[in-house]
Design goal:
alpha+beta, 8 strands, Immunoglobulin-like, 6 helices
């Protein structure tokens, strides 16, 4: 398959691969082609770098108290393990040969038991935190890569049905004038475009949306409008800058 010859398909597959929505046999085929074709491999690396920067856009949060407790427990466990290793490596003393050996063994067993208890506690804390993270992690049901007429990707759009949000990240370098705004439109088949919201100047942003608003919508588009956007019923009044198909995940 000559993916490199289709710029729009290459961008879409590379974005889906980096996002994790390209799975199964399709993902394995893409990775096999990337190993053989440098242009495909480069596109995959570019998208991985773009999505990796999303973490830097998230607001800073103080770690939960349980995190610090887990860190202290792990440090103490490592220190006890190192002390135990030093005791095992040390040559036996005269006191141990005459009668202190069983006391030293008892101390070692107690240290080992303490280490086991700390490790168990740490595993429980990690399990609880992981469960919370999985429950609160955003889901991805739909994904779109919006490109300009030259097939240059400018906006990555995903829909999170768990939180009823459209998540958008700018991946291009397009800049809007102070008197203009970008407006996102759904392009339902057989009906007029429907506004999904006006985009701010932020590199990443979220728009409230229901699954009913994006279900059965084959494509999205972004138009250049007067500052603040235009009413949905009027439809786009400015040029359409970016557009692309909205794909529903099947895995």
């Amino acid at each position: 398959m000559n993916i490199a010859g289709n710029a729009q398909l290459l961008e879409l597959l590379a974005a889906s691969h980096a996002l994790g929505t390209l799975r199964g046999a399709a993902r394995r085929r893409f990775e096999a082609i990337a190993r053989e074709q440098a242009s495909v491999r480069a596109a995959a690396l570019v998208w991985q770098g773009r999505l990796a920067s999303m973490a830097e856009l998230q607001p800073a949060e103080l770690p939960d108290a349980a995190v610090w407790t887990r860190i202290r427990n792990l440090i103490e466990a490592e220190q006890q393990d190192a002390a135990l290793a030093r005791q095992r490596a040390a040559p036996p003393s005269a006191a141990g040969a005459t009668g202190g050996g069983w006391l030293r063994s008892l101390a070692l067993w107690r240290s080992a038991a303490a280490i086991g208890a700390v490790a168990t506690l740490a595993a429980v804390v990690v399990g609880v935190n992981l469960k919370d993270q999985l429950q609160n992690a955003p889901a991805v049901r739909y994904v779109a890569v919006l490109s300009d007429d030259a097939s240059k990707a400018s906006l990555l759009v995903t829909f999170d049905p768990k939180h009823n949000q459209l998540v958008l990240q700018r991946v291009g370098d397009y800049r809007v004038g102070e008197d203009k705004s970008l407006q996102l439109w759904a392009l339902p088949p057989g009906s007029a475009p429907r506004s999904l919201g006006v985009l701010s100047d932020a590199q990443a942003l979220k728009l409230a949306a229901s699954e009913a608003q994006v279900r059965s919508v084959p494509a999205l588009a972004v138009s250049l409008e007067p500052r603040g956007g235009v009413p949905s019923e009027r439809g786009p009044t400015g040029p359409v800058l970016f557009k692309g198909p909205l794909i529903e995940k099947t895995l």
